[in-house]
Amino acid sequence: MHRAAKRPSHSAHVGGFRIELRRRAEDSAALRALTRICPSACFRFGAGDRIEFSSENCTLCGTCRQVCGATGEIAWFAPDRIAASPRLA
């Protein structure tokens, strides 16, 4: 039986974090470089020679965050972690 390949998205949840690819009119050189330097190969060229993001193998290494920090094309959102404080009896 043939399995359909997962389609890349522009936003993904990884380990409780949300990573978002923020589109601009053109992909920056930094974003395009991620197709070569992302250790998990989460970035690739897609339709219209635009960069696509797939979090399937993402390890949250932070490479994309560092490389595209100045361009604003990659956004990381930390999970809301509300620690339950122990109640004293």
Main beta sheet = 3 strands, antiparallel
Strand content: 15-25%
Radius of gyration: 16 Å
User: How many strands appear in the DSSP assignment?
Assistant: 5
Q: Give the class-level CATH name.
A: Alpha Beta
Features:
2 helices, Alpha-Beta Plaits, three-stranded antiparallel beta sheet, 89 residues, two-stranded antiparallel ribbon, disordered N terminus, disordered C terminus, alpha+beta, 16% helix
Structural description of this entry:
This protein is an alpha+beta fold and 89 residues long. The protein has a single domain, classed as Alpha-Beta Plaits (2-Layer Sandwich). Helices cover 16% and strands 21% of the residues. The protein is built from 2 helices and 5 strands. The chain has a 3-stranded antiparallel beta sheet, with no helix packed on it. It is globular, with a radius of gyration of 16 Å. The N terminus and C terminus are likely disordered.
